[in-house]
Write a structure and sequence with these properties.
The complex is a heterodimer of chains A (654) and B (611). Chain A is 60% helix and 9% strand. With 654 residues, chain A is α/β, with parallel strands linked by helices. In chain A, helix 7 packs antiparallel against helix 8, helix 9 crosses helix 13 and helix 17 crosses helix 19. The longest helix of chain A has 53 residues. Chain B is an alpha/beta fold and 611 residues long. In chain B, the strands form two sheets. Chain B has a six-stranded mixed sheet, with helices on both faces. In chain B, strand 9 and strand 10 form a beta hairpin. The chains are: A alpha/beta (654), B alpha/beta (611). Chains A and B meet through helix 1, helix 2, helix 4, helix 5 and helix 6 of A and helix 3, helix 4, helix 5, helix 6 and helix 7 of B.
């Protein structure tokens, strides 16, 4: 087929297609259906998921109820996080109260100046005036001083709170089992630690300040009014009813809208991030126009949700002002009659007029606060959901010490181990296995046979459902994570590089390693040449997760990292798959010496790696079906599983 | 591990601009909302003016009917107050309502522009920009610009106008008192400018530190397996906490600055008011002013407090907005778009003859003293021929494959398709002719169907099925929703081998004339690999293909093999020819001799003919 692709005819489509128009950018058609959406016809499931998202009910992705906060988690979290700041918090509130009192004294003093100082001054006595003026200036300084102190203490509280929260999320995420990480996905953990923490930060930065000011200003003004004149103050207080009604309406309507903003924004963010992380595929497959259409749709959806919250607020805020203005007019009308009847002093009425304005002005800010509060509460709830998830693999209270390392690695025992993923089928029904110290064992079998699960149980990424994994006779559950990591290192297919230099990345294996040791390890693996050829050699910044290193080179760095760690037990899980043959050969040569004095478990779908093994275990359906030295297995049963695999591999080599 | 440093980009082409100049660049985006924005500002001004007259009317009422105990005369005034209160509310509503729909649209169009612009930036651009940094421009920065347009810009205007109008009213009421109060503007503006400069520095530092915190957080999650495997989370934890502590210190510094400016903005007007009080009461005592006038004066002064106090804050917010705009335009100004001929050659038929002619290539950010990665590649692939590209790790095989769909352009020589320089073809057409399967298969959070039909949206389910059959990816049928199942980060997690097979299906689905496969079978087990090879052979029989191979099994897919070392094609020939001729090739392809190899029970299989 040497010609251009022909435009295809209209082929019959499967009836399960959720949507007919793939040409358009209807979400259902391109996005597909989450594997966890319930049963039923595909179309219904897709529509159901879309509806749940539109209603803002699907914050946590494909697995509803997983890592989701239980009722009260957020409140409990908040309480425990604020506990160390109780003293500072009280101080902050005191400062705010004093500041408000000083600030609110202003109109009172002006009223005093008009009611008392003016008549006195007319009478030729300026002492009242001077007293009032001095008091006014002092109040000004007091307000300013407390404001400064408030900013600083509030900053200490909120920044301390944020520091603790970030630290907690970080430490917790590090402690959680890999099982959790696999299901919760890294994207969502990062979202918790950045987006959701940001929402809380915004509340603390702008919200609390405005909230405290507005609330105090409102209630203190009202209290002052009650001190000045009770009947008139009652009239002002009657404005609270429409205020409460308007707020209730706004909160009810905007909660949904805000949630919708979040879900639509999440969908848009995913599209955005994935486009640029996969830009090679996007450009090579001329995906840009269709992506642009999809993005425009998602962006429009987000904009509409966002507009809704803005429009709601645009209706709510004027309502507050209207209530304030009407209260003012009513007060003046009623007050005027009372003054006319000499039941009220003129200065009191003036003060009322000023205070009502003061009560209502900052309510605007209070309304803004509601918005930040809603997203912060939602953020905190999600964070609480993450933090409430207990690490599935916990450290023992009283760890057992391992016997002294013999210099020949450690003996591994799988005693009647059964394992299945949470809510999933059993993967390993019953593994009984002993690997004597110093032995190199290869696990062979088809994809999905359970090889990696064996390795992950040994590395204690998961705990078995029944039975025990032992290291020199000690159940690995009785070891601390620290003890275990000192003994056992696993190299996997994926070789994540951290930002920093190549040397830094290798040194993760042993932070106190000298440059000489690092280079030695690299040389042993045949990685020295390519590293030295990098622009800055070992000091080259791998940047952007090592984009500039090929997959094979990254793998070599990962190997160097592991060998530097000098573990008693080494697990290689498909670790050589992206190496080319010379790379693999170099690694194998290095392994021949490196594995000396260690126990090793090697998983490979390429049998070349198996060559270094003393013993081969063929795994099928979670069971060990063949066990013996490679030569034995091939010699004894050429038609056995290993024999067949071996022949296929042999054929593929030439 | 070194602290992560924010990646500075070589792509920004403009020098630093002033706050105003940066913000003025928003004009083209604001244009559709311009009228509404102006109307909104005018409504805000009207609301403020009405708001200012309310205290004056109140003063009149107090001075007139109330002081005269004339309750009958009160009613027209009350009615006027109601009207004023209602119209203030109306204008207040109008200010928000006018732009409530228009400004999110501005934000939307800016975001679309950014997305579409970034999609067409060359791959080299994306190599230097982390997607997180690009995201913050589309979310945080644009949100900040929206709030600038809807709020800060409006209030800078309104507050300045209010202050002017209020000052004029005060001066009209009483020139001396008015001047005393309005004079506070001088120290406040001076102080605000000084403060703003210091604040900008600290804010910038806080932003950078927050970025570092986010980076470490992200890496620690993405690299969780490594950290766990080496028990390094304690070290990472320390590093993270140190960064967070630094951020907190900077934020506290910021809080102190904010506290100082607030204190200043409160004290200065209060002192002026106290002076005005002394003078005003004196004037009333002297009979030069009525009590009502003094009440009105103070009412206006109270009204002016907010515009004055907010000045410093608005200034700081404008600076932040300008920084956000600068960050946005920094990316939008990035050039380096793939050059395309004004009138490209659009061939009618493509036979698929692909030729590299003295091709040289280096990555854009390679230091100048480093040699080119590819130093004169000469390789001709005949129509329908499959060439395996073999070479040691890091020799530039992947780079060479990236050149064919012009993900990067050659830095010397040329690549031709049917004799036409790739750069003379329309890019869209070229990428339709060439399909690539990448070394690391990327799946998007979309349905399997959409992932396979990534570059072929008009394809049918039959096309998809055929492609899945070639890639031996029938596992798709066992997924909960078949072709509709969402995969990728937000969907079902597939194994490396499964991802690779979907990526292969994606490459073959549109029956491209030229296929570029970068080690397409590396993650497959032996059994699956041989099945895929069998199916792939049919496709390759009629397709020009360049296949990066690490193993003999993949090489067997090819008609000929090209050996790439030291930036050049050192040898071309069949697998057997090269095994005989080239020691470098033997080194690359012949598996190690080991104890296992010499097991006598195993007979050596005869070499298979390359297809």
């Amino acid at each position: 087929m040497s010609d251009e692709p022909q435009t295809p005819g209209t082929a019959p489509r499967t009836p399960a297609r959720p949507d007919d128009g793939r040409g358009d950018t209807d979400q259902v058609s391109w996005r597909g259906i989450s594997a966890r959406t319930g049963d039923g016809p595909a179309h219904d499931a897709a529509v159901r998921e879309a509806e749940a998202e539109a209603a803002g009910n699907d914050d946590d992705g494909p697995d509803p109820g997983f890592g989701r906060a239980r009722a009260g988690d957020a409140r409990r979290l908040l309480r425990s996080m604020l506990a160390p700041y109780r003293g500072l918090l009280a101080l902050t509130v005191c400062l705010a109260v004093v500041g408000q009192l000083a600030y609110l004294a202003g109109p009172l003093l002006i009223g005093l100046a008009i009611d008392e100082a003016v008549p006195d001054a007319i009478a030729g006595d300026n002492s009242t005036l001077i007293l009032v003026a001095v008091a006014y200036v002092l109040c000004g300084f007091l307000t300013a001083g407390t404001e400064f102190a408030f900013q600083v203490t509030a900053g200490r509280v909120s920044q301390g709170f944020l520091r603790d929260l970030r630290g907690r999320i970080f430490t917790h995420a590090q402690q959680l089992s890999l099982d959790f990480h696999e299901r919760y996905t890294s994207g969502r953990i990062v979202a918790r630690a950045t987006g959701d923490v940001d929402a809380v930060r915004e509340l603390l930065d702008d919200g609390i300040d405005g909230l405290v000011g507005a609330l105090l200003s409102f209630w203190f003004s009202l209290a002052f009014l009650f001190v000045l004149d009770v009947p008139l103050a009652l009239l002002v207080a009657s404005g609270l009813l429409p205020l409460a009604l308007a707020t209730w309406w706004y909160v009810r309507r905007s909660t949904d809208a805000v949630r919708r903003t979040r879900t639509t924004s999440a969908a848009m963010t995913t599209q955005y991030i994935e486009t640029f992380n996969g830009i090679r595929a996007v450009q090579a497959y001329r995906r840009e126009p269709r992506n642009a259409r999809i993005f425009r749709t998602l962006n429009r959806r987000y904009t509409e949700a966002n507009t809704e919250t803005i429009v709601l607020f645009a209706r709510f805020a004027p309502l507050l002002l209207l209530v304030g203005n009407l209260t003012l007019v009513a007060t003046i009308a009623v007050g005027a009659f009372r003054v006319a009847d000499s039941g009220l002093e003129l200065g009191v009425l003036t003060a009322f007029a000023l205070y009502i304005r003061r009560m209502y002005d900052p309510l605007d800010e209070l309304a803004l606060f509601l918005g930040t509060y809603q997203s912060a509460a939602a953020g905190l709830e999600k964070i609480a959901g993450l933090l409430a998830h207990e690490p599935a693999v916990a450290d023992p209270v009283r760890p057992t010490p391992l016997p002294e390392r013999s210099g020949k690695g450690r003996t591994i025992t799988f005693a009647r181990v059964r394992f299945g993923y949470q809510h999933g089928p059993t993967v390993l029904p019953c593994i009984d296995l002993e690997i004597p110290r110093g032995q190199t064992v290869a696990l062979v079998g088809a994809t999905g046979a359970g090889k990696s699960t064996v390795a992950k149980l040994l590395a204690r990424f998961y705990d078995p459902v029944a039975g025990a994994v032992r290291l020199d006779g000690v159940d690995i559950r009785e070891l601390t994570a620290h003890q275990l990591r000192g003994e056992l290192t696993m190299i996997t297919q994926e070789s994540f590089l951290f930002s920093g230099s190549v040397a830094d990345n290798i040194a993760i294996g042993r932070p106190d390693a000298t440059r000489g040791q690092i280079e030695e390890v690299a040389r042993a693996l045949g990685a020295w040449d390519f590293i030295a050829a990098l622009p800055d050699g070992f000091d080259t910044d791998v940047r952007k997760r090592g984009a500039r290193l090929s997959a094979g080179q990254r793998q070599l760095v990962a190997f160097a990292r592991a060998l530097l760690a000098d573990p008693a037990v080494l697990i290689l899980d498909e670790a050589t798959s992206s190496l080319d043959i010379p790379g693999e050969r170099a690694v194998q040569r290095a392994l021949a010496t490196v594995l000396e004095g260690r126990t090793a478990v090697v998983i490979a779908h390429r049998l070349s790696t198996v060559e270094i093994a003393d013993r081969v275990l063929v795994v099928d359906n979670g069971r060990i079906v063949e066990d013996g030295s490679p030569a034995e297995l091939v010699a004894n049963d050429a038609d056995g599983r290993f024999g067949t695999l071996h022949r296929a591999w042999r054929d593929s080599l030439v | 591990m070194a602290d992560p440093t924010p990646v500075t980009s070589p792509w920004s082409t403009r020098p630093d601009q002033s706050t105003v100049a940066t913000l003025l660049r928003l004009r083209p985006f604001v244009r559709p909302a311009r009228r509404r924005l102006i109307a909104s500002a005018l409504a805000a001004l009207a609301a403020t003016c009405v708001g200012l007259t309310i205290p004056i009317v109140v003063a009149r009422v107090v001075d007139g009917p109330v002081a005269d105990h004339d309750t009958a005369a009160l009613w027209p005034w009350a009615a006027l107050l109601v009207a004023l209160g209602a119209s203030e509310t109306f204008f207040f509503w109008a200010r928000r309502a006018l732009v409530a729909r228009a400004l999110p649209r501005v934000e939307e169009s800016m975001r679309n522009t950014l997305y579409e612009h970034l999609q067409t930036r060359p791959v080299a651009f994306h190599d230097t920009w982390q997607s997180g940094q690009l995201l913050s421009r589309a979310s945080r920065d644009l949100g900040e610009l929206r709030s600038f347009l809807s709020f800060i810009a409006v209030f800078l205007f309104v507050n300045a106008a209010t202050f002017l109008v209020g000052s004029v009213m005060l001066i009209v009421l009483h020139p001396l008192l008015g001047l005393v109060v309005t004079a506070v503007a001088v120290p406040i503006i001076a102080f605000s400018i000084v403060f703003e400069r210091r604040y900008r520095v600290v804010t910038r530092r806080a932003q950078d530190q927050a970025g570092d915190v986010a980076t470490v957080m992200e890496e620690s999650v993405l690299g969780i397996r490594v950290l766990k495997a080496f028990g390094r989370h304690r070290a990472m934890d320390d590093r993270f906490r140190a960064l967070v502590r630094e951020l907190r210190a900077t934020e506290l510094h910021k809080a102190r600055l904010v506290g100082i400016i607030w204190a200043f903005l409160i004290v200065v007007p209060e002192v002026a008011v106290a002076v005005a009080m002394l003078l005003g009461v004196g004037e009333v005592a002297d009979g030069a002013m009525t009590t009502g006038e003094l009440v009105a004066f103070f009412a206006i002064v109270m009204y002016l407090r907010w515009p004055v106090e907010s000045f410093g804050w608005l200034l700081a917010a404008s600076t932040d907005s300008a920084a956000a705009a600068a960050r946005y335009f920094e990316v939008l100004d990035a050039d380096g778009e793939l050059p395309e001929l004004a009138r490209p050659i659009d061939p009618v038929r493509v036979t698929g003859a692909l030729a590299f002619e003295s091709v040289r290539f280096r990555f854009p950010e390679t230091p100048p003293d480093a040699p080119d990665l590819l130093r004169g590649i000469d390789l001709a692939i005949r129509p329908g021929e499959t060439i395996a590209l073999v070479g040691p790790t890091g020799c530039g095989k992947t780079a060479m494959t990236s050149l064919v769909p012009r993900l990067y352009d050659v830095t010397g020589g040329r690549i031709t398709l049917d004799g036409v320089d790739l750069r003379d073809l329309p890019v869209e057409r070229l990428r339709r002719i060439v399909a690539v399967a990448f070394e690391e298969p990327v799946l998007f959070s979309m349905s399997v169907r959409e992932n396979v039909l990534l570059g072929f949206p008009e394809g049918t389910d039959a096309d998809v099925r055929r492609a899945l059959a070639v890639a031996q990816a029938e596992f798709v049928d066992d997924l909960p929703w078949g072709l509709d199942t969402r995969v990728g980060e937000e969907g079902l997690d597939l194994s490396g081998g499964q991802r690779q097979r979907l990526a292969l299906a994606r490459a073959v689905v549109a029956r491209p004339a030229v296929l570029v496969l970068d080690d397409p079978l590396s993650a497959l087990d032996v059994h699956t690999e041989s099945q895929v090879e069998r199916a792939l052979r049919n496709v390759l029989a009629t397709t020009t293909a360049l296949v990066v191979a690490h193993r003999p099994s993949t090489v067997q897919l090819a008609d000929r093999v090209a050996l790439l070392t030291d930036g050049r094609i050192q040898a071309v020939g069949t697998h057997e020819q090269l095994l005989q001729r080239s020691s470098a090739y033997r080194q690359l392809m012949a598996a190690d001799s080991s104890r296992f190899r010499h097991t006598p029970d195993i007979e050596r299989q005869p070499a298979k003919e390359a297809v």
